[in-house]
Specification:
single chain; mainly alpha; 0% strand
Length: 61
């Protein structure tokens, strides 16, 4: 009976699964933030890079 109580106490105090879930939630939040920035500013960045490519491709006078 004492071993059963000890195992129950160890199971209740174990936080390995909780930490993994917390890291998963943090990673999901970061992914959502990156996605929203890319969708919001992505067109402007593409235009900027295309403009830079055209400037580099044109020969100097």
């Amino acid at each position: 009976m004492l071993q059963l109580c000890a195992k129950k106490e160890a199971f209740v105090l174990c936080e390995k699964g909780a930490v993994a879930i917390e890291y998963g939630l943090i990673a999901a939040g970061i992914a959502v933030a990156i996605s929203s920035v890319v969708f919001t500013v992505g067109g402007q960045i593409a235009a900027l890079l295309a403009n830079l490519g055209n400037i580099i491709a044109t020969p100097a006078p």
